[in-house]
Every structure is written in structure tokens, then in C-alpha cells.
Write a structure and sequence with these properties.
single chain
Length: about 240
């Protein structure tokens, strides 16, 4: 195996190891987010995209080269030459095996390189989603508590309103009774006033009659005195 394919093979083993570590169930997404928030990643982040696309280009070139080698050694011409020369047959199959091996190594390296980036991105997004959901749950709990508090305050206000309404109803009933009582007293007072007016009128009429009778008696008395004086004069 040449140096470049040895490096690609080790790169493939490293990708498999990293992907297995990323998929471990006992390491939560929040821990991965803490790991991804280390300062070293902020230093690497300006060069990360360039490195990522560079590795994709390198792996694509190696994959195409391996694919060309596979097509080269699996074509009809090398196989015809191998049938003519038995020693060349083993050599062609060895070259074909190496080309296929290199094709698989480069293909899986490219595939796992894309998978590793995607898994890391999804873990980070999942951790952010968990934090957002935790914040939303906290907000929902606060909203529920506020709603319960408002409901309790509403029930308290409703109960207070009912008590005040009941008190006002009792006060209204008492006032109604007082008004009816005062109306009865006023009616009785009006009847007493009418009776007093009738008595006064009767007394006024009686006084008027007595005055007329007094005047009549006074006139008769004067007449009698005049008659008596006249008789006394006649006697003299």
C-alpha cells in the first residue's frame, strides 16, 4: 500500500472511531455542546470550512482515481493479456484487488467525512433544541403559575363581589323596610294633619258661630237696656 492510501486508510479508521464516539449513548447532546464550546474550536472554526471542503476534494479525487484503476484492470484488454500469460493473470487480479480496496477506502472515507460533520451538527442543534425546550418549559410553568394566581385572584374577587352584593342586598332590604316604615309614618302623619285641619275648621266655625251669637245677645242686651231706660223716663 502506497503512502497516500496508507494515510487515507488511517483517516478512515479515525473517522470510524470519531463517529462511534459521537454515537455513544451515554454521552448526551448537552455534553457534546459543552465540548464543542471549548475555546480551541473557536480558534479552529475560521479554518474548519476550508479544511472540510479541501478534504472532500482530495477524497473525491482519490475516489475517481481508484474508480479509474478499477475500470482499467477490469476491462477486456487486461483480462485477455492475463489469459495469454498466466503470470500476468495474478498480477492483474492483484492490481484489480488493490484498486477495488482503494475505491472502498476512499468512498467510505468520503461518506464518513460527510456523516461525521452531519452528526456533529445534529448533536449541536439537538442540544440547542433541548435548551430552548427547557426554557420554553420554564416559561410555560411560569405562565401556568401566573394563570393559577390570576384564577385565584379572580375567585377571590368574585367571592368578595358576591359578599358585597349580598351585603348590599341586605342593606337594600333594610332600606326598603325603613322606607316602608317611614311611608307608613308619613301617611299616618298626613291623616293626623287632615284630622287636625278638620278639627281646626270645626273649632273655627264654632268660634264664628259663638261670635255671631255673642253679637246677637249683645244687641238684645242693648235693646233691653234701651227699653228699660225708656220705661224709667215714662215713670218719672
Amino acid at each position: 500500500m502506497t503512502l497516500q492510501w496508507t494515510v487515507v486508510a488511517f483517516f478512515l479508521y479515525a473517522e470510524i472511531t470519531v463517529n462511534l464516539i459521537l454515537c455513544l449513548p451515554f454521552i448526551s447532546a448537552r455534553r457534546w455542546r459543552l465540548i464543542f464550546s471549548w475555546r480551541i474550536w473557536s480558534w479552529i472554526s475560521p479554518y474548519w470550512n476550508k479544511c472540510f471542503f479541501t478534504m472532500i476534494m482530495v477524497l473525491v479525487v482519490l475516489f475517481l482515481d481508484a474508480l479509474r484503476e478499477v475500470q482499467k484492470y477490469s476491462g477486456p484488454e487486461p483480462m485477455q493479456d492475463a489469459k495469454v500469460n498466466p503470470n500476468l493473470y495474478d498480477h492483474v487480479h492483484m492490481k484489480l484487488f488493490r484498486a477495488q480496496r482503494n475505491l472502498y477506502i476512499s468512498g467510505f472515507s468520503l461518506f464518513l467525512w460527510l456523516i461525521m460533520r452531519r452528526v456533529a451538527t445534529l448533536l449541536n442543534q439537538f442540544a440547542v433544541t433541548l435548551e430552548d425546550s427547557a426554557g420554553l418549559h420554564a416559561q410555560i410553568d411560569e405562565a401556568v403559575k401566573a394563570a393559577e394566581q390570576h384564577r385565584e385572584e379572580k375567585l377571590t374577587l368574585k367571592q368578595s363581589f358576591l359578599e358585597k352584593e349580598k351585603s348590599m342586598s341586605e342593606t337594600k332590604q333594610q332600606l326598603k323596610l325603613e322606607v316602608e316604615k317611614l311611608a307608613g309614618q308619613l301617611k299616618a302623619a298626613e291623616e293626623a294633619a287632615r284630622k287636625s285641619d278638620a278639627d281646626v275648621e270645626a273649632m273655627r266655625r264654632q268660634a264664628k258661630g259663638l261670635a255671631q251669637e255673642y253679637d246677637r245677645l249683645l244687641r238684645e242686651h242693648n235693646q233691653l237696656q234701651n227699653l228699660q231706660s225708656a220705661e224709667d223716663k215714662k215713670d218719672q
